Amino acid sequence: MKLMFAADIHGSLPATEQVLDIFSRSQAHWLIVLGDVLNHGPRNALPPGYAPAQVAERLNQVAGKIIAVRGNCDSEVDQMLLHFPLMAPWQQVLLDTRRLFLTHGHLYGPDNLPPLNPGDVLVSGHTHIPLAERRGEVIVFNPGSVSIPKGGFAASYGMLDDDVLTVYGLADGKVIADIAITP
């Protein structure tokens, strides 16, 4: 199963357009949206092309292919615009031998892990900083932010393909980080 991950869109229409174009070309089965979809939040500057209503319209066009979790900037008002569920604080994707625990990152994160089994993967956003590494017996993965990157990183997204999690630059497709999820 091929999965694409996008986090921290924060209402940026240009970033959304890029994500949807990559998703369409990638042949990924699901687009996993890791929260902070429409609102930029009080601690962030407005991202380029801030247009939350238009972002909702574009994402709604692929609503049946989206698995999403609620971020700290997402609200019930945002959910009213979206045709896919956004209000769950976490979701799980079950693979053959492990699970992906999906969350935004403000409740659970690399330094506050949920109960996981050896080999499981915590997938989160929130920090806007890409990450792909082992922490003890689990893997932590963050695709970075598609709209407001931090830590000197470029805007980025993630992909799971052939048991490898990879963070790619949104503009250039260059690999930023990767990790195999098989032992």
Automatic annotation (TrEMBL):
Main enzyme class: hydrolase
Residues annotated as domain Calcineurin-like phosphoesterase: 1-161
Cofactors that this protein relies on: a divalent metal cation
E.C. designation(s): 3.1.4.-
Keywords: Hydrolase, Metal-binding
InterPro entries per UniProt: Calcineurin-like_PHP_lpxH, Metallo-depent_PP-like, MPP_YfcE, PdiEstase_YfcE_CS, Phosphodiesterase_MJ0936/Vps29
Gene3D superfamilies attached to this UniProt entry: 3.60.21.10
Gene Ontology MF annotations: hydrolase activity; metal ion binding
One Pfam family it belongs to: Metallophos_2
Keyword Mitochondrion assigned: no
Family: Belongs to the metallophosphoesterase superfamily. YfcE family.
NCBIfam families xref list: PRK09453.1, yfcE
Name of the protein: Phosphoesterase
Native organism: Shimwellia blattae (strain ATCC 29907 / DSM 4481 / JCM 1650 / NBRC 105725 / CDC 9005-74) (Escherichia blattae)
